[in-house]
Amino acid sequence: MQEQEQPHAQPLEGMQEAVQAEQQEQHLKTLAVRVEESMHAQLRFIAQLSGTTISEEIRRAIEHRITTAQDDPELIARAQQAREEIEREAAARSAAIAGFIGTTALTGAADETPKPRRGTKPVSE
């Protein structure tokens, strides 16, 4: 008796591999969200009506929130303040590192000869 090939087995395996490769490429993260049973039931119903999954509906909701947040003047102002704070902290850390290795922070001079530390004698050539 000959074995019958399953016509859908190979394409399904190929699809699974493609999905896994795409997920690895996109660096997906998993979120666990607790919701009330009634909300879950409604979300499941919406997904069924839409022909999607609960995960896809959640992704759509998150994308919508991100889009609306990017148009929110108050959030934009807070983001700008956060950016300025990050830049100040980065400048302070850069200056601290430059002082530690004996270079000037503003020039970022990697080619400068380090200055001798206090209490040390310069190396004679």
Number of strands: 0
What oligomerization state is this entry in? single chain
Rg over CA atoms, rounded to whole Å, is: 29 Å
Characterize the biggest β-sheet: none
Mean pLDDT: 80
Give the strand content: under 5%
Q: What spatial form do the alpha-carbon principal axes imply?
A: elongated
How many H/I helices?
4
* Element-level helix/strand string: HHHH
The helix/strand class is mainly alpha
Q: Which consecutive residue ranges, at least 5 long each, have pLDDT under 50? A: 1-9
Task: Classify the helix fraction into a percent range.
Answer: 55-70%
Distance between the termini: 89 Å
Plain-language structure description:
There is one protein chain. This protein has four helices and no strands. The longest helix has 29 residues, at 73-101. It is elongated and about 65 Å long. It is mostly helical and 125 residues long. Mean pLDDT is 80; it is low at 1-9.
Briefly characterize the structure.
By secondary structure, the protein is mainly alpha-helical. Helix content is 62%, strand content 0%.
Structural descriptors:
mainly alpha, 0% strand, 62% helix, 125 residues, disordered N terminus, single chain
Produce the secondary structure layout:
Layout: H1 9-26, H2 37-50, H3 54-69, H4 73-101
